[in-house]
């Protein structure tokens, strides 16, 4: 590994951008452009990490597990910043709120990169904590009673979750302490993996349970998922894309890192069944809940719970390749869908599903993109989610055939609910437009939503059916590391 | 260190004191009394951290102790008192679970914490670490119980803060815990309180009451379409 600390630059560049956005006098569209520029540069930096050799550098590490997720975070951050530039006027922020919103967005992005890149589990915890605080701020930024309630619930539940995760992290160190000694290496993932086989199995089991429940809260796993639909529905429109597409991934990665440690100790309670249980519960509850939603953003937040459940299930079943593909595919498709829904909400003046009808009739480019995205979420080709769900079902059939019944039921229920939403929102006669003042006022108009959306959808399709050889090798290696 | 030696006894006494204050937090009916109990708990936690610093001969723990004292025994209680004064709130608070059942549940949770921690750590760790961990987990559980049993926004925040007290108690009790965790915890507790403060202030702007029950009606998705 070269001595060049690119990983830290990827983390600190957005934070420097946040400082700039905080200090800058928000005049007109300036903050939105600066935000876009910072995100574009971060995306370039994140992608260039792929070119450097992998390795550990102080508190950070780059390996096959986190590199694809870091690149993904850069791409989704850039797409979201572009969408945000076009919709932020429709959010009607005053100067203070605009400043807080843009700065919090970049703080979130930096923390997201740090959470993915950290080797030290303590640093990872701090990063996820910072990301949470930034997202609480973003959810609350409108200051409406509904937004305050959502932020409050988010803050309390995730506060507890984060606290439990820290307790688990402390226990992890306690288990390794006689073997790794004092100081920073005691929380390094590599060092913990090296000694895991000789650690006390009882403490390791306890540590994993706390980490699972703690970070599971942040990953939106049932039964601690209740903050997610509220937070995604009440924050500014672009936030849903990064909450669903990025924050959940970082939390699940933390669980997977802990799982990779405890997996190495044969005496520890098996983490697989625990993951399968959480995943199945999330899938089944979400597939039922999808039928009762009237608010489009809540609907797709519930769909995120479903997909995180599926990914967790895949990792629990020992199909990490399917899990990684599913995480990445879900991030791409779900962010694209949130761009479509966000744009529709600004065009129709409401995010209720009954106000958004026949989008493909009135706005074909946007509407067909949204329809394609929703179909992708339902598991239809040509997206990565089709491939990963296929692999997941195959893994279940090979390993635990009894799982096929609940898994199939969940996929079917969720899929039909999604198809119903697709028909209602995209097809048929269009509902009247009632545009939010200032929405898509930039030159280019709706292209600011449809270009990011179609780009992410195209990437999801490439990931599913035309995956580049380098990325495939990377994902294979990640699957090997995650066991 | 074992039972009978000063280091062990004092550490136990202070850790037990923190847990005792968690019980005290649970049976208060007035908000200002809750804040007082939380301040005392913060001071005891600081003393526990300082004592661990002394007995482990680890100077970094004094920093943790000082931060804990400044934030939890002084700053946060002061800020919450100011908030209450500004809101004119000194009334008794709404409970979701009565005091009697709360205390029973608390006793059960402590039993659970002990039953979980002691067998799991039987193999390896020193007696002091194990028992400290059991105490810390009990404090964490009682903090969670307080968040569930109280509907008032301020006491829910205090529940979360006292939960974090349990975390610090756990972190200082583990010998040689890397400093990064302690410092970050201390700093982040402040930040958490800060955000909570902002949220609570906003609450006041929107609603006349601090009762979080009224928030539940603000769901964007009511029964009516």
Automatic annotation (TrEMBL), chain A:
Localization per Swiss-Prot or TrEMBL: Cell membrane; Membrane
Membrane topology per the entry is: Multi-pass membrane protein
Q: Which UniProt keywords apply?
A: Cell membrane, Membrane, Oxidoreductase, Transmembrane, Transmembrane helix
Q: Which InterPro entries match?
A: ComplexI-like_HydComp, ND/Mrp_TM
Which sequence ranges form a coiled-coil region, renumbered to this chain?
none
For this protein, the record's PANTHER family field holds: HYDROGENASE-4 COMPONENT F
Protein name per its UniProtKB record? Hydrogenase 4 subunit F
Native species of this protein? Answer: Falsiroseomonas oleicola
Q: What does UniProt list as this organism's lineage?
A: Bacteria, Pseudomonadati, Pseudomonadota, Alphaproteobacteria, Acetobacterales
TrEMBL record, chain B:
Task: Spell out where the chain crosses the membrane.
Answer: 6-27, 34-55, 61-84, 96-121, 133-150, 157-177, 183-203
Highest taxon listed in the record's lineage:
Bacteria
- Name where it's found: Cell membrane
Write down the membrane topology. Multi-pass membrane protein
User: Sorted alphabetically, which keywords does the UniProt record give?
Assistant: Cell membrane, Membrane, Transmembrane, Transmembrane helix
> Major place of localization?
membrane
Protein name (Swiss-Prot/TrEMBL):
Hydrogenase-4 component E
Name the lineage.
Bacteria, Pseudomonadati, Pseudomonadota, Alphaproteobacteria, Acetobacterales
């Amino acid at each position: 590994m070269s001595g060049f600390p690119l990983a830290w630059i990827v983390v600190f560049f957005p934070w420097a951008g946040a400082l700039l956005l905080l200090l800058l006098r928000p005049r007109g569209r300036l903050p939105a452009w600066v935000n876009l520029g910072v995100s574009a540069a971060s995306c370039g930096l994140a992608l260039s990490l792929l070119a450097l050799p992998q390795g550990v550098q102080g508190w950070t590490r780059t390996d096959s597990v986190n590199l694809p997720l870091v690149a993904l975070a850069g791409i989704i951050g850039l797409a979201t910043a572009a969408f945000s530039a076009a919709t932020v006027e429709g959010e009607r922020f005053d100067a203070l709120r605009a400043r807080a919103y843009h700065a919090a967005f970049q703080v979130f992005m930096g923390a997201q990169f740090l959470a993915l890149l950290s080797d030290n589990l303590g640093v990872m915890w701090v990063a996820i904590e910072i990301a949470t605080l930034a997202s609480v701020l973003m959810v609350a930024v409108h200051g409406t009673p509904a937004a305050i309630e959502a932020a409050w619930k988010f803050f309390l539940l995730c506060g507890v979750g984060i606290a439990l995760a820290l307790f688990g992290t402390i226990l992890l160190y306690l288990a390794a302490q006689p073997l790794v000694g004092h100081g920073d290496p005691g929380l390094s993932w590599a060092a913990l993996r090296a000694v895991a086989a000789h650690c006390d199995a009882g403490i390791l089991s306890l540590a994993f349970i706390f980490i699972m429940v703690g970070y599971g809260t942040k990953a939106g796993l049932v039964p601690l998922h209740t903050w997610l639909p509220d937070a995604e529905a009440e924050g500014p429109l672009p936030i849903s894309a990064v909450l669903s597409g990025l924050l959940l991934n970082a939390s699940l990665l933390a669980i997977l890192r802990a799982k990779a440690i405890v997996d190495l100790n044969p005496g520890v309670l098996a983490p697989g069944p625990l993951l399968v249980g959480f995943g199945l519960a999330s899938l089944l509850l979400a597939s039922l809940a999808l039928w009762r939603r009237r608010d489009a953003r809540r609907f797709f937040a519930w769909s995120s719970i479903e997909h995180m459940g599926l990914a967790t299930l895949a990792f629990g079943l020992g199909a990490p390749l399917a899990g990684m593909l599913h995480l990445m595919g879900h991030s791409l498709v779900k962010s694209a869908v949130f761009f479509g829904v966000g744009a529709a909400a600004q065009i129709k003046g409401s995010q209720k599903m009954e106000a958004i009808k026949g989008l493909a009739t009135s706005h074909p480019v946007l509407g067909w993109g949204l329809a394609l995205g929703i179909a992708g979420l339902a598991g239809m080709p040509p997206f990565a989610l089709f491939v990963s769900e296929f692999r997941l079902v195959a893994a279940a059939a090979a390993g635990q055939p009894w799982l096929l019944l609940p898994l199939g039921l969940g996929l079917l229920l969720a899929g039909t609910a999604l198809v119903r939403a697709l028909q209602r929102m995209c097809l048929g006669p269009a509902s009247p437009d009632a545009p939010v003042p200032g929405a898509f006022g930039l030159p280019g108009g709706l292209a600011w939503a449809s270009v990011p959306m179609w780009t992410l959808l195209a990437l999801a399709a490439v990931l599913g059916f035309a995956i580049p050889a380098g990325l495939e090798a990377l994902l294979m290696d990640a699957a090997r590391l995650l066991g | 260190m074992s039972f009978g030696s000063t280091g062990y006894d004092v550490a136990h006494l202070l850790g037990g004191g923190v847990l005792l204050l968690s019980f005290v937090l649970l049976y208060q009916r007035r908000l200002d009394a809750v804040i007082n109990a939380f301040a005392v708990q913060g001071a005891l936690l600081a003393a526990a951290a300082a004592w661990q610093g002394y007995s482990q001969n680890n100077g970094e723990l004094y920093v943790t102790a000082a931060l804990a004292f400044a934030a939890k025994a002084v700053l946060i209680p002061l800020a919450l008192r100011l908030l209450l004064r500004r809101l004119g709130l000194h009334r008794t608070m709404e409970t979701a679970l009565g005091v009697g059942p709360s205390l029973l549940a608390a006793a059960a949770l402590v039993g659970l914490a002990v039953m979980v921690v002691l067998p799991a750590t039987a193999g390896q760790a020193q007696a002091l670490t194990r028992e400290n961990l059991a105490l810390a987990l009990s404090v964490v559980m009682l903090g969670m119980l307080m968040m569930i049993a109280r509907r008032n926004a301020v006491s829910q925040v205090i529940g979360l803060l006292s939960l974090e007290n349990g975390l610090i108690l756990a972190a200082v009790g583990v010998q040689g815990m890397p400093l990064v965790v302690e410092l970050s915890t201390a700093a982040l507790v402040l930040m958490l309180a800060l955000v909570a403060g902002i949220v609570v202030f906003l609450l006041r702007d929107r609603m006349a009451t601090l009762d979080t029950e009224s928030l539940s009606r603000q769901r964007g998705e009511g029964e009516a379409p």
